[in-house]
Amino acid sequence: MKDQLTFVGDMLEHFNRIWNNGDYSSAREIIAPDYVRIDPANNDVVGPDGLIQFVQDLRTQYPDLLITFREHVFDGNTMVVHWRLQGTDLGMNTSTKIDPTGKEVDFRGVDVIHFK
Predict the structure, then answer these.
(1) 14-27: pLDDT as tens digits
(2) Can you tell me the distance from the alpha carbon of 8 to that of 100, in angstroms, rounded to the nearest whole number?
(3) Which residues pair with 107 in a beta bridge?
């Protein structure tokens, strides 16, 4: 059980570094080349470089981006993470080409992550 708790803690720390700190070396450490992030509002994100570009776009659009990992469930190969994203829309997202609104955003989502 302790090994699973350590693994989950390590993964959440990597996610924190990627999303909140812009530490993209963590993405290269933990994201598989065949990784696919499926998001109905955006194009699929593929591999570590795709994730890095996606996060960079969000961090440009929301320079004060903060992702909080609120709760998670882990079964050994799959983790479900409930998260909260907060930030202020101050920059141009290179993917959407929509001008910044200056408005604050606050929304929640759930990711299902499969580990190899």
Answers:
(1) 999 999 999 999 99
(2) 35
(3) 85
